[in-house]
Amino acid sequence: MIRNNMTSDAQTGPDDAAAPVGFESHDHTACVEDALAAAETRCSEHGLRLTPVRRKVLELLLQEHRALGAYAILDLLRDAGFGSQPPVAYRALDFLAEHGFVHKIERLNAFVACAHPGETHSPAFMICRVCEAVAEAQSTPAKGALGAAARAARFQIERTVVEAEGVCPSCANQADA
Amino acid sequence: MIRNNMTSDAQTGPDDAAAPVGFESHDHTACVEDALAAAETRCSEHGLRLTPVRRKVLELLLQEHRALGAYAILDLLRDAGFGSQPPVAYRALDFLAEHGFVHKIERLNAFVACAHPGETHSPAFMICRVCEAVAEAQSTPAKGALGAAARAARFQIERTVVEAEGVCPSCANQADA
DNA sequence: GCACCCTGTGTGATCTTATAACATCTGGAA
DNA sequence: TTCCAGATGTTATAAGATCACACAGGGTGC
């Protein structure tokens, strides 16, 4: 099941929270708060420290709801009164990525908040080349052609990067019009 | 079927006693020449210009038989008497990648010669985190979980990045020893 | 209390990767 | 011939990432 992130700008329309899965528009404020609360819970359960910088970076990524480069995050951190040198952002991102709160999109050299926090997973992403929106899905590395190739080569997979680039439905519609 | 690129550093590695370099140069000369000839044929068939710089970059990647960063390629180009500024390498790489002669490994920000030239394909890579060797396999984007997710989201996939990071058999053996 | 250590943060400098902008050259078409 | 498009060469700079070192805060053992 897909939790869809396909929004480039905040949609302030009066849509209900009960939108269909494919193009969900949702109560974003609650979504951010819930995710932050869940992250805090998970950190305290696992003895991890969700420090102010780390929390802020996660909050920023949840709010923006799209992929942000480390330097964009850094600008936002500076605005929020945190340190403004690259390591500040990279260290927070390293922590968040290591523990599954955010993912790096290799194709964009950018980061997104995880859409399925708490579950152990191999994420897969769909990246719209028009609006740069990013949706997260699940991949099953062991099952497909790659898994077969890895077994044949006796290659031990530890982590996978699966990213599809293309056009999201919304941008495809605009192209038709 | 996998065409295996699993070779450790050729020139720049510090000490490489275990690498099967001895044989390889023999087989490898023919392999490079064949691939270059095939590329030239394909270019003339399709009205593409395999210019000296482009040909040299492809030759370098075929020779090295591993992923090289753009700046490493640039150094080799300089040694060969070509221009030594980044755009020289990037433009050649853009051309070669666009037409399927080389692939970019997003995870490494590096480039490898295609192991299955001529076939339309969605490449998948296995990257050893120990020796950085890269092997190319085929992926089947439409078939797996990602394809299903894309159909469900009406996302039109144009290109996929599939890269598995892990440990190659050779490095795994050395770890055991 | 204190000293100690560990983790995290702040900062400057530096390194790597990639692109923008513009000049020049070359070969083919009008 | 002139013009044009594609390719190359070069300078400069943007964008992404890391290193090295100083220092702050909070536990722990004493």
Would you summarize the structure shown here?
2 copies of one chain form a homodimer. By secondary structure, chain A is of the alpha+beta class.
Structural class of chain A: alpha+beta
**What radius of gyration of chain A results from the CA coordinates?**
17 Å
Strands of the widest sheet of chain A, in order across it, are 4-3-5
- Tell me the overall shape of chain A: globular
**Relative strand content of chain A:** 15-25%
Task: Give structural notes.
The structure is a homodimer of 177-residue chains. By secondary structure, chain A is an alpha+beta fold. Chain A is 41% helix and 18% strand. Chain A has 6 helices and 5 strands, in the order ααααββββαβα. In chain A, helix 1 packs antiparallel against helix 2 (52-64) and helix 3 (70-79) packs across helix 4 (86-98). Chain A is globular, with a radius of gyration of 17 Å. The two termini of chain A are 29 Å apart. The relative contact order of chain A is 0.14. Mean pLDDT of chain A is 84; it is low at 1-23. The interface between A and B is large, with 42 and 40 residues. Chain A binds a DNA duplex (30 and 30 nucleotides) through residues 49, 51, 53-54, 69-71, 82-88, 90-91, 95, 109.
